[in-house]
Amino acid sequence: MTDETDKHDVDGEAAEQWELVNTPLGEKWSGRTRYAAAMFFYKRGEMSAETLEVYRICARLDSTDPLPITRDRGIGQDWLKRMGFE
Questions:
Q1: Of all helices (H) and strands (E), which one includes residue 38?
Q2: pTM of the model
Q3: Which of 37, 55, 65, 68 would you call most buried, defined as having the most Cβ atoms within 10 angstroms of its Cβ?
Q4: Which residue pairs from 16-25 have beta carbons closer than 8 angstroms and sit at least 24 positions apart in sequence?
Q5: Is the four-CA dihedral 40, 18, 61, 50 of positive or negative sign?
């Protein structure tokens, strides 16, 4: 593979994970889906461990939005901004 192909693959994966981390609340397994996608962003260094922990806690709670919890804990300001939750 060329470097350009690798970059396209990575960008495509990031776009897919972005959609998954934004899975609507209340859908069956949506909490776990959001957590798995959050792990992707954590591994890329785009999310703090503390923010990832909130997603882990919410993984079994499909209707619980991790963003207000993140905000209330005073963590993940960069992530909240990226998610448009300010």
A1: helix 30-43
A2: 0.87
A3: 55
A4: 17/41, 22/83, 25/62, 25/63, 25/64, 25/65
A5: positive
